[in-house]
Amino acid sequence: NVKQLELIAGRRLALCLLIARFFAVSSLVASPHRFERRAGRLDDVGLISRRLAACRLCAFAAPSYLAARGTPQHPDELVGHDTVNLQYQSSGQPFRWPFRVGNRTIEVVPQPGIVADVSDAVVAALVAGGGIGVTATFLAAPSVARGDLVPVLADYAVDHHDITAVWPESRATNPAVRAFLDWLAGVFSDQIADGLIGRRRRA
């Protein structure tokens, strides 16, 4: 509930809130009419894949949070800010925030006040004013378009893995699948390269 998250964030309680969502993953091979979007490596047998776009990661926060706490201009300035982070369901490990600084990529491991094991919950907590968090730009794009979130440290955004569409080999020659893939590629291209996230790098 966004309102409840706003209350928690506003009180800045000395606790870490864990938001978890559990779900079952069905086999695409067993369900020939299904389609999936994935970010990262593809290890499945019996599936065909197509790269849609790079998965760009950037920090975001609600305008209200930044108005109250200030906007960091460098990753080093994240110290002291409230943060929201992702915890991997498979390992329980926290997501390490990558930033491109000069010619190298550094990683920051925040001490979050809110932890979620699904990216949608991270975005919801950010919209509620929970702090600063890093997520994929295509996930944050609708909230940015509504004015609920703004990019933070956009000059240090990183392209991390690929966004890939996967589907069963049995549907490989289906013209409807090919048409949908073309449309999907355009959607991700628009959301990632729509000017919301800067490409200039700072040292």
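Next protein, fold it too.
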Amino acid sequence: DLKTNEVLGKVAVLDDPGAIVYDPLSKRLFVGCGAPKSLVPIRADLDVKTGKAETPIVLEGPPKSIVADGLGMLYVTVPEKNQIAVVDTRVMKLAVTWPVAQWPAPIGIGMDRLRSRLFVACGPRINILSAADGHEIGAVTINKPDLTRLSPPTVAFSDGQAFAPLGDSLNVIGQTADGRFEVQQMLVLEPGAGPPTLDSHS
């Protein structure tokens, strides 16, 4: 209950739950579970006292981050397999996987839904991919030489810009008039700050 913070109920999922995303088309939450390499669907309107999760969608590796396009497709980073898994929630199945072996393992992922683009964090490099077929549109490197082995744990997108935290900084990525992607601003975070989240309404 968001007003009282009371726990209304619990729903069991598989082992090692992590990322969670809501898909408005299927009206379900999807929970990434690492050990069983699965996404677990949960109806948003289930009875919180007696409701149960639905049949898991099996992936080829443990899911790390998930983003939904709002039209029935989920995009999931699978760092163990160096791939992006694409899940179709209309049929509740893995539709296709896109290999990204030429980059470090993909971790964070965000989406520009208007332009159908994915922003995928692979180490300190943010790769911009087409959400239609996975081909690379562009890339930008976050200039943090002391953190070259780390990767932004999340990537958020709003109003034409992507936001990627790395270490003690929040990198704001945008596109120039000639089509290049660049870090347009770097904000300093408090030491030890966790991955931020974005309020797209403000």
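About the second fold: DSSP finds no helices and 16 strands in the chain.
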